Amino acid sequence: MARPFIKMHGLGNDFVVFDARDDEFSLSADQVRAVADRRTGVGCDQLFVMEPSDKADVFMRIYNADGSEVAACGNGARCIARLVGDGRETVRIETLAGLIEGRADGAGAALDMGAPKLGWQEIPLAYAMDTLEMPVGWGMLERPVGVNMGNPHAVFFVERLDDVPITELGPEIETDPLFPEKVNVGVAEVLAPDAVRLKVWERGAGLTQACGTGACAAAVAAMRRKLTERKVTVHLPGGALEIEWREDGHVLMTGPAEISFTGQIDL
Ligand SMILES: N[C@H](CCC[C@H](N)C(=O)O)C(=O)O
């Protein structure tokens, strides 16, 4: 049966969005993979299903391209906020990781992504260790910071980002048994007290043009390491996000959300 969808992106991190607020609609992992396939499907990094919520404007169900269901997606949340916000003051999005709220306009959104979780069991890790400087390494990437933004991140700081073979080391780290739920791998280069360059090998999607929760995790990691101030511009391959780790502990993420096209697909 043909199902309408909206193709969107946040700084090139791209999505297929289905609207199931008025009907029963669910997807198998195989169907997610088929839609996400860039050769035979629509092609996307993540896929969302908008469902009814009794505590927010919408429930955002999130799938990675590999078919895995996950609890958080920052760039995607800005896209959903734009779709449901239609210029209203505040938008509330329910996810498996909790409530996201903020403001959306015709170009993007500024969202409170909640407070990061920093304990080793919250990342989660398979055994106890200091998440501020984890005593582990994979090739030239070592001693990351562990941060959970509703999803797990390991953030590595390097002198020269372009020297890092991220497509080689990313999958190795993503699937290391140290991370029972796998992990999103961020590699960051600090440019200034208010600027960081970042690339992310995403769990379940690979190297993406941008990663919203990854940008939040990198900013939190940099502040924990006292490498930057509370407000940081995070420069990703697809563009820049403004991140602020506020005094109240919450992380505010501001950036664009674009509609690419609409279509239908047989499922
Ligand atoms: N790959 C992530 C989900 C998408 C996150 C990313 N696209 C973002 O904008 O935050 C995970 O498995 O946790």
Write a structural description.
- By secondary structure, the protein is an alpha+beta fold.
- It has 2 domains: 2-109 and 257-266, Roll (Diaminopimelate Epimerase, Chain A, domain 1); 137-249, Diaminopimelate Epimerase, Chain A, domain 1.
- It is 16% helix and 41% strand.
- It is built from 4 helices and 19 strands.
- The strands form 2 sheets. The chain has a 17-stranded mixed β-sheet that branches.
- Strand 7 (98-104) and strand 8 form a beta hairpin.
- The longest helix has 13 residues, at 212-224.
- It starts with a strand and ends with a strand.
- The model has no long low-confidence stretch (mean pLDDT 97).
- 2,6-diaminopimelic acid (API) is lined by residues 13, 45-46, 64, 70, 73-76, 151, 184, 202-205, 208, 211-214.
- The site of 2,6-diaminopimelic acid (API) has 20 residues, from helix 2 and helix 4.
- The active site is at residues 73, 211.
- GO terms for molecular function: diaminopimelate epimerase activity.
- One of its GO terms (cellular component) is cytosol.
